[in-house]
Amino acid sequence: MSRLRLMAVHAHPDDESSKGAATMAKYAAEGNDVLVVTLTGGERGDILNPAMDLPGIKERMPEVREEEMAKAAAALGVQQTWLGFVDSGLPEGDPLPPLPAGSFATVPLDEAVEALVRVVRSFRPHVMITYDEHGGYPHPDHIRDHEVSMAAFDAAGDPERFPDAGDPWTPLKIYYVHGFVRARMQLLADEFTKQGIENPYKEWLDRWKDRDDLMARVTTQISCGEYFPQRDEALRAHATQIDPNGVFFAVPMEWQQRLWPTEEYELAKTRVKTTLPEHDLFAGIDGDE
Ligand SMILES: [Zn+2]
């Protein structure tokens, strides 16, 4: 089969490493072209790793995040490009403060869609990945990521839309990546208990008790356990954002690979015939385009 092209649209540098990273590493290792599109520069990310809270880092956050992103992309073996919008930050407080002027979530939708359509028409992905309608997590840039990706999926193949943004290209499928699956966390939590170790997920699981498990929406599971080490290397590359002693790294690799060696997706729209459940994002697609 000839090379296929996969494009994942993420809000901030580091999102690509925490959501579907092993899937991308796998498809890249298998000879496909994989492109991460990062919508914003992550300029408003706080330093979440105490070891990186050093003089000079905060002052040059945009450059630091570019360097981290380049390392993460190299760890995953994928290409990466920036769309150039400015991080909206996660508004906190009651009432919530207004979004910063000019930030990504305040940019008119069509302006962001045209920018993404331009990349879609140039890279010509067969499959796109984005977040669900809740953004996977309630950050204004993540919700906007969903809106912009879905609009670009529909507009890119239409010659009437954004005629100055390149020759039309019609992507065939678009997925939501579901990172926070309760059933997975419960399984790992049970393993901690079984091994007589304190369960680091207890608080999260208690908080999630009343929420529907996203597993009910999952249509597609990708076996990618052998790429989990690359995912972790990519996560660690985002050194200001990820605490290597944090909960992300609390679960031994062997448990993850043994108990839950997949990443989860929901087929949101398809223009090809496929049968659910799926185990391949390219299912139903011929590689001759
Ligand atoms: Zn993000």
From TrEMBL:
Gene3D superfamilies: LmbE-like. Keywords: Hydrolase, Metal-binding, Zinc. One of its GO terms (molecular function) is hydrolase activity, acting on carbon-nitrogen (but not peptide) bonds, in linear amides. Binds 1 zinc ion per subunit. It catalyses: mycothiol S-conjugate + H2O = an N-acetyl-L-cysteine-S-conjugate + 1D-myo-inositol 2-amino-2-deoxy-alpha-D-glucopyranoside. Zn(2+) binds at H12, D15, H142. GO terms for biological process: mycothiol metabolic process; mycothiol-dependent detoxification. SUPFAM superfamilies: LmbE-like (SSF102588). InterPro entries: GlcNAc_PI_deacetylase-related, LmbE-like_dom_sf, Mca. It is an enzyme of class 3 (hydrolase). Its EC number is 3.5.1.115. Monomer. NCBIfam families: mycothiol_Mca. Belongs to the MshB deacetylase family. Mca subfamily. PANTHER family: N-ACETYLGLUCOSAMINYL-PHOSPHATIDYLINOSITOL DE-N-ACETYLASE (PTHR12993:SF11), N-ACETYLGLUCOSAMINYL-PHOSPHATIDYLINOSITOL DE-N-ACETYLASE-RELATED (PTHR12993). A mycothiol (MSH, N-acetylcysteinyl-glucosaminyl-inositol) S-conjugate amidase, it recycles conjugated MSH to the N-acetyl cysteine conjugate (AcCys S-conjugate, a mercapturic acid) and the MSH precursor. Involved in MSH-dependent detoxification of a number of alkylating agents and antibiotics. This is Mycothiol S-conjugate amidase. It comes from Williamsia sterculiae. The gene is mca.
